[in-house]
Design a protein that fits this description.
The protein is α/β, with parallel strands linked by helices and 309 residues long. The protein has two domains: 175 residues, NAD(P)-binding Rossmann-like Domain (Rossmann fold), CATH 3.40.50; 120 residues, N-(1-d-carboxylethyl)-l-norvaline Dehydrogenase, domain 2. 53% of the residues lie in helices and 12% in strands. It is built from twelve helices and eight strands. The chain is globular.
Length: 309
């Protein structure tokens, strides 16, 4: 049994992830009006997945695994894992985790869907803090399978391992964030793009539509298949070892314009190149470029099949 604490959009989405994987899910939602619409939202989204052939069983079977509770203690009865989905408010999370720690059996993992705050900020004073961590999803996680697992320094290793195993079994792509930082990986990357986007509009370089078009029809299409390091690796024959000295100084100057000086030092380049070459040896570079291009063709075909709003 999985407990999802908070029946907003993220809570509903997490419930679908776990129910789709065969788990019984109890959603706790204190607001009465919100409780009335949760079942309908779950059903609607599961039906969309079924229409796209993205689930392997009848939608009703998945929906039947999801129940909604007004009482937190009821939702926690018999659970093995808790996914908290309360608003991104420090005092709210502190109070809620104190309650979860007092009500949930000591062997139950307590995970927060926090987008920015590490567990050290809201769970450090708890008696059961060693079972607390952040599991931050993309939104919605039933379509964006990334799950950032962010332990605090006090989180037990076995809690990290069991949470990662549960999430992987539910179809999530697990990333272990090795050090607590505000925003983790997902929102620090997203934040860097957003900060520059706002500055480009502020400085009169581009309109909002110009920026969105550049990502939608350029960067975003590549990033739908591969990440920034692999993009750079495949854009230059010779890979990152050739790309870094050519493009690094330009990116360094752009950062300096914003008051950020983070050069790609030789030591950093060597580390990044070594990690990429362990993933993709250079003698497989041509094949991977062809794979990327076939993927972009498939994405373009899918895009053209979607009716415009």
């Amino acid at each position: 049994m999985i407990a999802v604490v908070g029946g907003g959009s993220i809570g509903v989405a997490w419930a679908i992830v776990f129910a789709r994987a065969g788990h019984s899910v109890a959603i706790h939602e204190p607001d009465g009006e919100r409780r009335q619409v949760i079942a309908g939202e779950v059903a609607e989204r599961v039906q969309d997945l079924a229409a796209a052939a993205l689930i392997d069983e009848a939608p009703a079977a998945i929906c039947e695994r999801v129940t909604v509770s007004s009482e937190l203690a009821d939702a926690l009865a018999g659970v093995a894992y808790v996914q908290e989905c309360a608003p991104e408010n420090l005092e709210v999370k502190r109070a809620l985790f104190a309650e979860l720690d007092s009500l949930a059996p000591p062997e139950v993992t307590l995970a927060s869907s926090s987008s920015m705050m590490p567990a050290s900020e809201f769970a450090a004073e708890l008696a059961g803090r060693d079972r607390c961590l952040v599991v931050h999803p993309g939104n919605p996680p039933y379509l964006l399978p990334i799950a950032e697992v962010v332990p605090a320094p006090f989180t037990r290793d076995d809690v990290v391992e069991s949470a990662s195993t549960l999430l992987a079994g539910a179809g999530m792509s697990v990333v272990h964030v090795r050090k607590e930082v505000t925003g983790f990986i997902f929102n620090r990357l997203q934040g860097a793009v957003l900060r520059e986007a706002w500055c480009l509009v502020r400085d009169g370089v581009a309109t909002v539509e110009d920026v969105d078009r550049t990502v939608r029809d350029g960067l975003g299409r590549r990033w739908a298949l591969i990440g920034p390091f692999e993009t750079s690796d495949l854009n230059t024959r010779g890979g990152l070892a050739a790309h870094a000295p050519r493009m690094g100084p330009g990116y360094e100057r752009m950062g300096a314009e914003r008051g950020q000086h983070d050069p790609w030092t030789p030591e950093l380049v060597d580390r990044v190149v070594a990690q990429r070459r362990a993933i993709l040896p250079l003698d497989e570079w041509e094949d991977r470029v062809r794979w990327r291009d076939r993927g972009l063709i498939a994405l373009e075909r899918a895009r053209r099949s979607i009716e415009p709003l």
